[in-house]
Amino acid sequence: MIHIPNVVKEKARAVRLVVFDVDGVLTDGTLTYSASGEEVKHFNVKDGVGIKLLQTYGIHTAIISAKSSAPLERRAKDLGVEHFFPGTKDKWPCLTDLLGQLSVLPEEVCYVGDDVIDLKVMKRIGLPVAPADAFWMVRDHAALVCESAGGKGVAREVADIILGSRMSLEEAYIKAMLPEFEDVK
Q: Which domains does the chain have, with CATH numbers?
């Protein structure tokens, strides 16, 4: 794992809500269409474990995506993401509403984004994070750039950073070893 500066650890300790973009964060950003025109998305199981771990420790999770698709809806449902906002072009008003519902402050938010559409949010929250292969401007505005590229374990890395700021990862992963956790997809 990459070296995490103390200021990032402090911000990670304060996080109560983690928000993920999808294409370029939870996927590698590739758009694939079947012969019938159906969209196909590839998600990483490691990211699913990371999202479920955050939820297990009482950290809210959300997905705000500019695109909407059946595969994305299915993935959000499989992971039990309680706050799912597909087809959201302007993400800041959506997030502002969610913050009010959850009584969460902007500085208690980790937002993971990869492209310019995410900058409006990333400039206003406590812990902006970018995948390793995010657009350069987004990496420049991130408090932390992951080692992982989009779709290759970014959510897991973010979960490790947040949980690792509060406890040892060995302790955090005890819950992932329980039989009931095996339903994670």
A: 6-179 (3.40.50.1000)
